[in-house]
Amino acid sequence: MTPYRLSAGGLIDRRAPLSFTFDGRPLTGFAGDSLASALLANGRLLVGRSFKYHRPRGILTAGAAEPNALTTIGREGRTEANSRATMQELYAGLEARSQSRWPSLAFDIGALNGLFSPFLGAGFYYKTFMWPAPLWEKLYEPFIRKAAGLGTAAHVADPDAYEKCWAHCDLLVIGAGPAGLSAALTAGRAGARVVLVDEHAAAGGTLLSETARIGGRSAPDVVTQTMAELETLANVTILLRTTAFGWYDGNVFGAVERVQKHVRVPAVARPVERLWRIVARKALLATGAEERPLVFGGNDIPGVMMAVAMRTYLNRYGVAPGRQVAIFTTNDSGYALAADLEAQGITPVAIVDSREDAAPLYTGKARIVKGAVVSDAQGGKALSSITVLRNGQTETVKVDALAMAGGFSPIIHLACHRGGKPQWSDVQSAFLAPGDLIGLDLAGAVATTAGIAACLADGARKAAALLDEMSINATPASFGAVEGDIVSAPVRPLWTIPGVKGKAFVDFQNDVHRGDFDLAVQEGYGHVELAKRYTTNGMATDQGKLSNVNAIGLLAEARGLSPADVGTTTFRPFYTPVSFGALAGPHHGHDFQPVRRSPLHDWARRLGATFVETGLWYRSSFFPRAGETTWRESVDREVLNVRAHAGLCDVSMLGKIEICGHDAAEFLNRVYSNAFLKLPVGKARYGLMLREDGMIYDDGTTSRLSEHHYFMTTTTAYAAGVMNHLEFCAQVLWPDLDVRLASSTDQWAQMAIAGPKARLILQAIVDEDLSNDAFPFLAAREVSLFGGALHGRLFRISFSGELAYELAVPASYGESVAEALMEAGAPHGIQPYGVEALGVLRIEKGHVTHNEINGTATAADLGFGKMVSATKPDFIGKAMVGRPGLVDPDRAQLVGVLPLDPKTSFRTGSHILAHDAAATLENDQGYVTSSAYSPHVGSTIGLALVKRGASRHGETVTIWNGIRNEFTAGRLCDPVFVDPGNEKLHV
Amino acid sequence: MASLVPCPHCGARPKEEFTIRGAALARPFANADPAAWMDYVYLRDNPRGRYEEHWHHTAGCRRWLVVTRDTATHEIAASRDASLDTVGPDTAGGVRP
Amino acid sequence: MSDIRITPHITPRAALQGCTRLVSRAIRLEALPEGHIIHVLGKPGDTLPMAQLAAVSDGAPHAVRAAGPGQWFIVGDRAKTHFELADLFAALQPEAFGVDQSAGRVRIRASGPMVERMLAKGMAADLSLSRFPIGYATTTLIGHIAAHVTRVGEDAFEIMVLRGFAQSLWDHLARMSGEFLED
């Protein structure tokens, strides 16, 4: 036994010792310990250094609000910085390290900051390191960052799994203390779907630290029995080690479950953390109340602790906080601690009560000093004495531990997450939850209910009332009479303590002390939002759980206002920090987003394709061959081979939409700017879609497969967008039209077969006659393949400018058919080609993509003026396409670009200047939208949008790359570099 | 973190299943005054409070909805099918009781 | 006309052919045969008689599934020939149009006592039997992937997904099942 571990008592398992290390030193605790209780039991009062002044810090609380005892747990990828020792369950082999210290916890060079502290007040960094400015980045910031800061993140990947999960319930109960347990039992017995969450490993909340007896049973026994009953109910889900961290729209609550943060090596098949989204018809907040610290000098010295925390260590963990304990209280709750200490044989050396008129029901032996305050505490790495001030007289009392009982603040955070403002109550001296909550109620101490009996009753009553709103009958659970219940009257707040000499901390984690607030008010930053930023109070990882209300109280007194007038800063999720791992869930690394695979993916892979990500798709980019050393070699070969022989390209990722219905023709006529009413069955037509503002939205082909059945293809990039757009048109704009839409993108493996030999090759597998007469340009028909073994859709359309077809077959047959085509095409020189070659082929032909259809181009700009019908009564974009700005002759128009010297080159994005004009914004004539090396032309070629471009063919220009400061002499030309007469398409 | 949008056909679903288009406005006639078209294409009221918007249940039933959303609180007062005000959830979901 | 005629070995390839089923007492995950999937496009607001749709289905339980207003899927394990499909589409006329999605969507069956807990890791819909009864079908996100989900038994669901996403969804479901496969 260590000097601090009591010989008996507590809920720890003394038969199950656990070894762990702190800063490398081996220590022992017991199963049921928190890291904090185990450290205290080992006499480790000094646990960390503070953020700014590097002051020695100990353990202040026993729960989620802990600002001081932050440690780094684990190693390598499992390193978890800033872990609260109070929330970390002890496990065998746990490795914890202290933070914010160098070179060691006991001797810290940064503590010199403390000597300079008169200069390091609020706003110090802003004021001092302002000038000279260049030194900020080079000197000041790196220095400050090294000296300050909390734990350090690991630089290796986290090896563990995280997941997300949804849950649905009638009643969500947050907090398994007296009110929460009672509520869950009431609702569970009524058959409601209940989710009960609690952030601790064990349910019970304050009941686990209570000495009161409930219905003749100990408080922890009542917890055990209640949990046992809840576990038998199939309609109740119990989530321990789970922090509800936010309340969101639709009554959805976010919670994080630490599934395996209490084991040394997590099981691989299970996550270490699970992010819950809990959809609750109703929710009950039973989160209890946070005890407030008191702001006296040296209130951060190790040994100073919250009174309820001291009770918890004493009663739940069997750890004495010290041997000479004093209690500084503003209310009756401090006397419960005195009684518990005495029960363990530790008579407090003094109870300092700020109330002159205090009349506690206390029968113990401790000396009570009424109408007094602790103005200062003394000690270095451990508390040695306190100064008690009464009626102007000071007295020094030797102590090794001091409890602070400054009254309670309801833990209302979640109730404020959806915009409601906390309300100050003068009666309760606390901020209470907003009044008009929907779908959420509060029970127990968070609703200022005082005492165990009242909390048990409140939880049951509120749960029954919420269930009644859902027409579920419930009988409030009852637990019997409570003996030894302590019902504290509301406190009279004590914000400004007189006689303080030392540094009196408000925000322990960010090292904000009382003087900082005086300074903030003095310098005009007294508004609560300004004071927060000026002092950084409440901006640490604990988000001011212990400090915010004290800060508001101090500001109120300094400004002569009520806390109600000062108000609070905004409560936002998360209640406590949530790991990025939990937020990302399984979606990281390879699984960051899903992969969309073409039905020809494996075919392309077998042929050695290099893949490129296009949205979620993996597309074959090019097919390198032995001996080719650069991608350009492969692409040039593929391009030339298409023009000379034939190529096969996977175009399965084009969007494909089946359009059916008796008004399908009229529908297409309205969504395209060109005419579609008279498209014959068996023919494809190029179509242009505009946006309502008159710009081009997307292009593609639509084929009429039968009287009332059309098949549309869209660009890959806009496949999803076009489908949404068509559905908008069909459902919202023209619901009177009979048109039905289905995406069939994934149904078809689609192959472009392009090149002079395309017909020869296709004819080998297609049963129908493909001669130019029988299957002319823009023919589009269902065809039979392999003697009727398979059916597909064949379209005679061309993106490359060559004789070309697109063949669609059911996706499951894609690989088989592609292999058959390669086999049939082998004697004719067929080669696969990828999207790089496809891009070169289309630029050579002057075909546009979304490089040109970039939201700023009209149909006329791209040479499609004739595709905007002048006669149709209506189509998307018709009303605005004729606006003056859209028909301005000075508009940028599509044009080709060539370098004057074929050995020179230029890049996409370069700007066009008049020949030899200076590179200024005024001289800007347009820009290159697409460029590629054309093996057909023998130089780089480009497409560009240039002012009046269509009428400037032949003009010499300067192509300017402003990023690389390159100038290339070039010439504007016709954007069609190959077969301008389209003869190849019709052979 | 999370936010649920009620779909008249599918029930409450997370917002990630939806695509929001913006104000639910009536499309002017093709020959309407240019000012009416400018209003429709470009000008928005941006009120604080209730606002009717077009939402598409993209990863669900693929219907366009008119969602009445409070821009200040995100509270959704109503949602209906943009074209099928009379279609109830029973015909959409099949056999849901 | 070409003088070369080839009739190679034309065979379908299943999207999930490499995915062997995952089985434990708690969970079972398996790819279903790529049979037929017909997307029936009625008029929104129409309530086609289920009997008419059932009549053109293969008659198996849950062969006809709702897919949003006025739309249904007819599914089955056996692949249909081109001519069988044409007959089926004709039988739907004039009220409805049929679109073949047999190769465009892939079916996965997830079953076992832990199936609700497994699917809740990806699906926001309430999966309890009372809210998601046998026969109910809906389209929803599983993780980042949209899928059509039908409850075909107390502890069994069929999940239909676009072919291009099938492998990703399978991988995702397998990971979601991981903790239930340890027995």
Q: Any overview of this molecule?
A:
With 987 residues, chain A is α+β, with helices and mostly antiparallel strands. In chain A, 21% of the residues lie in helices and 28% in strands. In chain A, strands 8, 9, 12, 13, 14, 15 and 28 form a seven-stranded mixed sheet that branches. In chain A, strands 42-43-44-41-35-45 form a six-stranded mixed sheet, sandwiched between helices. In chain A, β38 and β39 (709-714) form a beta hairpin. The termini of chain A are far apart. The mean pLDDT of chain A is 94. Chain B is mainly beta and 97 residues long. In chain B, the strands form two sheets. In chain B, strands 3-4-5-6 form a four-stranded antiparallel sheet, with no helix packed on it. A two-stranded antiparallel ribbon of chain B has the order 1-2. Chain C is α+β, with helices and mostly antiparallel strands. Chain C has two domains: 1-33 and 104-183, Gyrase A, domain 2 (2-Layer Sandwich), CATH 3.30.1360.120; 35-101, 2-Layer Sandwich (Alpha-Beta Plaits), CATH 3.30.70. Chain C has four helices and ten strands; from the N terminus they run βββαββαββαβββα. In chain C, the strands form two sheets. Chain C has a six-stranded antiparallel sheet with strand order 1-2-7-10-9-8, with helices on one face. A four-stranded antiparallel sheet of chain C has the order 4-5-3-6, covered by helices on one side. Chain C is globular. The chains are: A alpha+beta (987), B mainly beta (97), C alpha+beta (183). Chains in contact: A-B, A-C, B-C. At the A-C interface, β8, β32, β40, α19 and α20 of A face β6 and α4 of C.
- The average pLDDT score of chain A comes to 94
Shape estimate of chain B? globular
Tell me how many strands of chain B there are.
6
Q: Tally the beta strands of chain A.
A: 51
Summed up, the helix count of chain A is 22
Biggest sheet strand order of chain B reads 3-4-5-6
Q: Name the quaternary structure.
A: heterotrimer
Per the principal axes of the C-alpha atoms, what is the gross shape of chain A?
A: elongated
Largest interface: A-C, 70 and 56 residues
- Element pattern of chain B in H and E: EEEHEEEH
Weakly predicted, low-confidence segments of chain A:
none
Helicity range of chain A: 10-25%
For the sheet with most strands of chain B, the description reads: 4 strands, antiparallel
Query: End-to-end distance of chain A, in Å?
Result: 98 Å
Number of helices of chain B: 2
How large is the radius of gyration of chain A? 38 Å
